[in-house]
Write a structure and sequence with these properties.
- The complex is a heterodimer of chains A (633) and B (508).
- Chain A is globular, with a radius of gyration of 30 Å.
- The mean pLDDT of chain A is 90.
- A two-stranded antiparallel sheet of chain A has the order 1-2.
- Chain A contains 25 helices and 2 strands.
- In chain A, 72% of the residues lie in helices and 3% in strands.
- In chain A, helix 16 packs antiparallel against helix 18.
- The N and C termini of chain A lie far apart (83 Å).
- Chain A has 633 residues and is mainly alpha-helical.
- Chain B is mainly α and 508 residues long.
- Chain B has 24 helices and 2 strands.
- Chain B has a two-stranded antiparallel sheet with strand order 1-2.
- The longest helix of chain B is centred in the middle third of the chain and has 34 residues.
- Chain B is globular, with a radius of gyration of 22 Å.
- The chains are: A mainly alpha (633), B mainly alpha (508).
- Chains A and B meet through strand 1, helix 5, helix 6 and helix 24 of A and helix 7, helix 13, helix 15, helix 17 and helix 18 of B.
Chain lengths: 633, 508
């Protein structure tokens, strides 16, 4: 089985290096094809491993070689395939394969086609390192690796120039890329701190050693580690207040948004919490875990609220990703790790499908993203309409599609734990989710053909692209039915989470309530937007609408109160402190020495009587010194 | 070849002397050949080095002034070995990539002399020999900046010389006093480091001596607030000068801390952890912010050097094997990465005769190979895992966390603010549309530049993925250094702070 581990892990790396060889030459279709084949190979290997594990095989552990060894620290390149990592591997490689094939069509006209595949495969490799590593340092390699690939891919169209945030809230791809990298770095520092705490208290960074040592540590240390690691997770998973980068990341090509900024990379934070469940499920850190759940719930609500009024097709989906990540954290924080992982997987399928559908729309609309300028696209893009419809139904949580099962389980968990406020917020968010998803679908595909004003002639995407998307559509529809078997499979490793008897009795009422809320959300969306766009000036000018539209003014706040002061202080430090104080002092000392030398030169007149005078002065001075030393000594 | 170290030290110098009779047209080829042989010798040294042995190897001792115990005394251990190899490597690659045409013969001769002094510093085990090479290294650099530099070259080179010279003189006083103390205890004169190591000094002596050596090392590093000579030196120096300065000369200061301050004055070193780490943290954060404010790409790299040197200092004073090994590894990685970055700035300066970021933009489309290599070095500079930059930085911060979590977090902000200024440089230089007409036709890297830069990219990845061949021997010697310090420390607090590795403890 070991060879499958290596195939799964290194096929994307080979693909990346292969594509990089052609990185500077003109578009070559075979680069995309070979990359996709290698990714498919990786998927096949992952699937083989998954079936092996599912059949009761023992977790596979491979250690390639030593990486860093200094002092007592020994970090190997070690990889582990167990229930959790194999689930992630299958999800990552499956979505990646689809996205690779999709990109052959989507990036068809791009002159940097080859370069794109190189970055995309490098991302998959990093993500696999992240999920397969058997120690925290290896996780960190993947963690930073996906960060760099995300930087490269967000800034893929680096030639675009900066515009003011009023024209484009993301300013430019390269700006958004830098923002994403830097914000993630803030969180990464906390993550490093978490790693340091664990190392100095357990003497290792291997998961098994660290987790075995946990019961012997005191609360303060456990809490520090739990908080620090979670802050790290907040960066990658774009949780408030480190969330702004994710919507700006939509500047990247749409396949990137589908793969990285929806299905895989942003779930790394959730994965970390799931992976570190022995830490987060300890009683000593229950407050931290509760905080994770509360923050997750808040983000679910907060992000959904911004999606309600947004006009940008991709940004709406980005907010919905944020919101769904909130759901996952809510589940993980409440101890329902397997439910979080289940939602992670289901979400990966339908969200990737949704983004790829949005990519088709963009392709058809010549990169127009404003849904107010679309409408009625279902005539010309029937397949895409179905795909996005399926994905939206799944996202909205309508049975029997995937989102219903996974999301409902999370909402039920909140009820089961007796955290009533969280439960209410999650239910309300479910309604909002249904509303904004279908607002987007209706505005894009139904009603009047507003795009005609702009002289656009939409056309459906290539056939092979549509076919490539079908596995995701299928999974978005049926993944929910595997809830039971997934639970059985994954809880061999993760702690099981069962609803109490009381919740169990109420399960149909609870599910029914959520369903009613979701359906009313859809109904409201239909009422408002089902038959074309009717602008409501009064509503659009209201305070709340403006607040949501401007993302609660948070990007503005960051620009005014963090970026600008940082630049000003830096400038001040350089021009005033470094040049005028530190350096000027050095020069002043030099000048004093020079001038004193220059002045005292006059002593050397060559006149003997002057020299005698000075000798007298010197003698007296020496006497004084001698006198003082005798007195003191 | 038992006297390989002497060969390494004096071969470039003798070749440099012979260089005076070499024809001007073939001076460059001559220099490159000599530097190649030197690098091969250094690699041979590495290959035949006994990595399991933590002590000094290839030791040579020739009495110079027996009455005062001054000997030509050299040796190499895991700590100095790789700095020697890196010195030979950077000298060679710097010469290959060099674009200077004017007075090329003098430049080659200066560089070869400089190489002698640099290697001499790192292998010297006698304080006077160390001091001689230390001071001699100023002369060729003074000449390189003063003769091939920019408009302010005289000011910059004199400032560089006088500033560092002042510090060194204080260090010399410290050395003389140390020898005097040795004499008063043992009755004989000695300037040999290994003799000095055996001398256990009272704390108050240690502090004063520590401060004297500190003056020499801190200015060289350069530590805040003694760093202002560096931006001028880099700003005015030709590319080759900056490469050598950043890659090797600055390392003399941090190497001095490890070779002299820690083992000679373990108690004082522990007492000085706080003041020094405060300076180091200021250095990390403050110069990173100053770097962000720069308009000139070369100045950004210059200030970023200071910022990274702060991390190296933090690691040196972490007093555990993780931190010190990391700090020495970081010296190497910073040498490689900052050397490469200065070469890269030189590339664009040769083409446009300006280094201002505002003059550029969109270069990624015009010069893709250049952008890729710059990108690699950028990532190594911000400490991305699997590049050379991560290993040292991670170990240093991990090590210093044991001394002070807050200190490690403050020092760790380097991963954020380092990314801020580097990404800003990259964005302003390489991204966006090509607005300046002059940039539209810039040629990409030529063969000469690629020959100099590609090996560095290879090293950045190789030692990022598999640092063991280098980190292993370093760690062996560092563990020995730490046990020695632990043994020698007088106060309990120093013994507590100097953390023995578990493996060492168990062996005892």
């Amino acid at each position: 089985m070991e060879k499958y581990v290596y195939i799964a892990l290194f096929a994307p790396l080979v693909s990346s290096i292969f594509a990089a060889l052609f990185g500077m030459s003109s578009k070559k279709n075979f680069v995309g094809v070979i990359a996709s084949l290698l990714l498919a190979t990786s998927f096949m290997a992952s699937a083989t491993l998954a079936s092996y594990i599912a059949e009761g095989g023992a977790a596979i552990h491979v250690t390639m070689m030593e990486w860093i060894g200094a002092g007592d620290l020994m970090i190997p390149f070690g990889f582990m395939v167990d229930h959790v990592s194999v689930t992630m591997m299958v999800v990552v490689t499956l979505v990646s394969t689809v996205v690779h094939i999709y990109s052959i069509g989507y990036m068809d006209h791009d002159k940097s086609f080859n370069r794109f595949f190189s970055y995309l495969s490098a991302f998959v490799f990093s993500m696999l390192v992240l999920v397969m590593s058997d120690n925290f340092a290896g996780l960190f390699i993947g963690w930073e690796g996906v960060g760099v690939c995300s930087w490269l891919l967000i800034g893929f169209w680096y030639h675009k120039e900066d515009v003011s945030p009023e024209v484009n809230p993301s300013i430019s791809p390269s700006w958004a890329a830098n923002e994403a990298f830097i914000v993630n770095r803030i969180a990464d520092l906390a993550m490093l701190v978490g790693i340091f705490v664990l190392y100095w208290n357990t003497g290792s960074l291997q998961y098994d050693v660290v987790f075995a040592e946990l019961p012997h540590l005191d609360t303060a240390i456990l809490t520090t580690a739990a908080i620090a690691l979670f802050i790290g997770a907040m960066g990658k998973s774009a949780q408030f207040p480190l969330h702004t980068w994710l919507t700006d990341a939509m500047e990247g090509p749409t396949p990137v948004s589908a793969l990285i900024h929806a299905a895989t990379m942003v779930t790394a934070g959730v994965f970390l919490v799931i992976r570190a469940n022995p830490l987060y499920s300890m009683d000593a850190v229950s407050d931290v875990s509760y905080f994770i759940a509360a923050l997750g719930t808040f983000v679910a609500f907060f992000a959904a609220s911004m999606a309600l009024v947004n006009r940008d097709l991709k940004r709406i989906i980005a907010y919905s990703t944020l919101s769904q990540l909130g759901y996952m954290f809510a589940a993980a924080g409440l101890g329902a790790y397997w439910i979080a992982l289940f939602h992670l997987a289901a979400h990966a399928f339908f969200k990737a499908l949704l983004f790829l559908g949005a990519g088709n729309v963009m392709h058809a609309m010549h990169d127009e993203l404003d849904i107010f300028k679309m409408g009625g696209l279902k005539q010309s893009m029937r397949a895409t309409y179905y795909y996005m419809g399926i994905a939206s139904i799944a996202l909205a949580g309508i049975p029997p599609f995937a989102g219903f099962f996974s999301k409902d389980a999370i909402i039920e968990t909140a009820f089961n734990e007796g955290t009533l406020i969280l439960w209410i917020m999650l239910v309300v968010t479910a309604g909002m989710t249904a509303f904004y998803s279908f607002r987007q679908v209706f505005l894009t595909f139904n009603g009047d053909h507003r795009y005609k004003e702009f002289g656009i002639h939409p056309h459906e995407m290539y056939k092979f692209v549509l076919v490539a998307m079908s596995p995701l559509a299928l999974l978005a529809m049926i993944a929910g039915f595997f809830q039971g078997s997934f639970q059985e499979f994954i809880t061999k490793l993760l702690p099981n989470y069962e609803m109490s008897h009381h919740t169990h009795e109420l399960v149909y009422y609870l599910g029914g309530l959520v369903l009613v809320v979701a359906v009313s959300g859809i109904a409201l969306a239909w009422k408002k937007y089902g038959n074309g766009l009717k602008r409501d000036e009064k509503c659009e000018n209201s305070f709340i609408y403006q607040l949501l539209k401007n993302q609660y003014y948070i990007p503005h706040f960051y620009a005014e109160f963090i970026s600008r002061p940082y630049a000003l202080v830096s400038e001040m430090m350089w021009r005033n402190v470094d040049m005028k104080i530190v350096d000027a002092t050095v020069d002043a000392i030099a000048h004093i020495l020079y001038f004193s030398g220059d002045k005292t030169r006059k002593m050397q007149t060559g006149n003997l009587s002057h020299y005698l005078n000075w000798m007298g002065v010197g003698f007296v001075l020496l006497l004084i010194v001698a006198a003082i030393t005798t007195v003191i000594g | 070849m038992d006297n390989i170290l002497s060969v390494l030290v004096f071969f470039p110098a003798i070749a440099g002397l012979l260089g005076f009779v070499v024809d001007k047209g073939s001076a460059r080829v001559y220099g490159i050949s000599v530097a190649t042989v030197e690098l091969l010798l250094a690699l041979w040294l590495w290959m035949s080095f006994d990595t399991a042995n933590a002590g000094m190897q290839y030791v040579e001792l020739i009495p110079l002034v027996p009455d005062f115990g001054i000997n030509y005394y050299v040796g190499v251990d895991g700590i100095s070995l790789f700095i020697v190899v890196m010195t030979a490597l950077m000298t060679l690659l710097g010469m290959i990539g060099m674009s200077i045409e004017k007075e090329i013969k003098n430049m080659i001769i200066s560089l070869l002399f400089l190489e002698m002094t640099m290697i001499g510093v790192f292998v010297a085990l006698d304080a006077i020999v160390f001091y001689l090479f230390w001071e001699l290294s100023l002369v060729p650099m003074l000449y390189i900046i003063g003769a091939w530099g920019g408009p302010l070259r005289i000011y910059a080179s004199v400032k560089f010389f006088l500033y560092t010279f002042t510090g060194s003189l204080i260090m010399l006083v410290g050395m003389l006093f140390m020898a005097y103390l040795y004499n008063s205890v043992s009755g004989v004169w000695s300037f040999s480091l290994t003799d000095w190591y055996a001398l256990v000094l009272p704390e108050n002596y240690q502090i004063w001596l520590f401060l004297a050596f500190f003056a020499g090392f801190a200015i060289k590093v350069p530590m805040f607030p003694f760093h202002t000579w560096l931006p001028y030196a880099h700003g005015q120096a030709p590319t080759i000068g900056s490469v050598i300065l950043a890659a090797v000369l600055l390392k003399m200061g941090t190497y001095g801390f490890v070779r002299f301050s820690l083992p000679l004055f373990p108690d004082a070193s522990v007492m000085m952890i706080w003041p020094i780490s405060v300076l180091a943290i200021i250095m990390v954060i403050y110069t990173a912010m100053v770097a962000y404010a720069q308009e000139d790409i070369k100045q950004v790299i210059a200030y970023s050097s200071v910022s990274h040197m702060g991390i190296i200092i933090l690691g040196t004073f972490a007093m555990n094997a993780e931190g010190i090994s990391g700090s020495i590894f970081l010296m190497l990685s910073h040498g490689i990465v900052s050397g490469a970055l200065f070469m890269l700035v030189g590339v664009i300066y040769d083409r446009r005769h300006t280094k201002l970021m505002s003059e550029f933009g969109g270069l990624a489309a015009v010069m893709p190979k250049y952008a890729v290599i710059f990108g690699f070095m950028l990532m190594a500079s911000v400490g991305l895992p699997l590049t050379i930059g991560f290993v040292g930085e991670f170990l240093v911060l991990l090590g210093f966390y044991e001394i002070s979590p807050i200190g490690a977090i403050l020092g760790g902000t380097t991963i954020i603010i380092g990314a801020i200024y580097m990404l800003t440089v990259y964005k302003r230089t390489f991204f966006g549309p090509v607005t300046n007409e002059k940039n539209k036709t810039l040629p990409d890297l030529n063969g000469k530049e690629l020959t100099a830069l590609v090996p560095l990219v290879a090293i950045v990845i190789w030692l990022g993925v598999y640092p063991k061949p280098v980190l292993g021997p370093i760690d062996t010697s560092v563990k020995a250094l730490i046990s020695f310090m632990h043994e020698k420390a007088r106060s309990d607090i120093a013994k507590d702070t100097i953390t023995l590795s578990k493996s060492v403890k168990e062996a005892k």
